[in-house]
Amino acid sequence: MAFSASNCLALLSFAFFVSSSIILSCASRGIEARGSPISSLVSRELFHSIFLHKDDNACPAKDFYTYDSFVEATRHFPNFGNAGSLSTRKREIAAFLAQISHETTGGWATAPDGPYAWGLCFKEEVSPQSDYCDSSNKEWPCYPGKSYKGRGPIQLSWNYNYGPAGKALGFDGLRNPEIVANSSSIAFKTALWFWMTVQKPKPSCHNVMVGRYVPTEADIAANRTAGYGLVTNIINGGLECGRPNNAQVNDRIGYFQRYAQLFNVNTGPNLDCENQKSY
Ligand SMILES: *[C@@H]1O[C@H](CO)[C@@H](O)[C@H](O)[C@H]1NC(C)=O
Ligand SMILES: *[C@@H]1O[C@H](CO)[C@@H](O)[C@H](O)[C@H]1NC(C)=O
């Protein structure tokens, strides 16, 4: 068979009546055509050596975050881990996995295998201080009685994130925020959505990690230089950046250093954000 992926859509419409095996081979070609799938850089074995304890009884998210749902979610974001050199691709994936690990960490200083072997231990925030409803936001109004607390690998929070994430991914984030902690593939998709999406004035985490970040004058004045520290600034800079030796920032860095080693790639410069102003 010698049809290209671009013929797939046209073919599919009649192939439906002919043979499901054509559809299957077409679908898998479509995925390959968008670049090698993430599984060539993150094998099942590597995933499990990164997240050594995610399925322990001690972890509330036990058995929730599966390798297959991670890979499935990445198919919706074909540019993730797929821009630039092999090192750049591995570094971006290591940075993403490190940030979601900090957000869901069950680790502590003397934990078995060290504090950075405990990513993906939680799927929802345990003692939220509020419902994370910004009622001044009229574009994404809170639904009565719903909590927009941290859920999923990136701990998606606030109505103004649940609304647009759901719109982009095909669920009702305002009426049904709980689904982020009920469906593993939706959970991973929300984390990738946050990672890939530019939310002005912030750049996307993806663009920072693949060298596509172009600082504005204001960014330069605020020391917002490309590197893993800037990704931390995008995710939670208001609470963590611009202050020396912040414990959360150090935890994020610790995860990244361990994962970069497992991916056999260097971390790049500017791991910290202690000299950066937040957005
Ligand atoms: C999510 O799961 C909980 C129980 O684990 C259930 O009570 C709730 O209805 C579920 N919500 C959705 C949106 O599936
Ligand atoms: C930028 O970093 C320098 C140290 O490298 C620091 O002295 C300065 O205060 C920082 N500027 C801002 C706006 O944080």
Can you describe what's shown?
The structure is a single chain. The chain is an all-alpha fold and 279 residues long. It has three domains: 1-33, no CATH class; 37-122 and 198-279, Lysozyme, CATH 1.10.530.10; 125-183, Endochitinase, domain 2. It is 44% helix and 0% strand. The longest helix has 18 residues, at 86-103. The protein is globular and about 45 Å long. 42% of the residues are buried. Residues 1-35 have low confidence and may be disordered. The structure holds 2-acetamido-2-deoxy-beta-D-glucopyranose (NAG) (2 copies). One 2-acetamido-2-deoxy-beta-D-glucopyranose is lined by residues 176, 178-179, 182.
| Ligand set | 2-acetamido-2-deoxy-beta-D-glucopyranose
Major beta sheet summary: none
The shape, in one word, is globular
Instruction: Please state the second-level CATH architecture of the largest domain.
Output: Orthogonal Bundle
Instruction: Count the E strands.
Output: 0
Order of helices and strands: HHHHHHHHHHH
Specify the number of helices: 11
CATH classification, class level of the largest domain: Mainly Alpha
CATH topology of the largest domain: Lysozyme
Could you give the distance between the termini? 52 Å
**Overall mean pLDDT:** 89
Provide the domain count: 3
- Helical amount: 40-55%
Features:
3 domains, chitin binding, 279 residues, single chain, Endochitinase, domain 2, Lysozyme, disulfide bond, binds 2-acetamido-2-deoxy-beta-D-glucopyranose
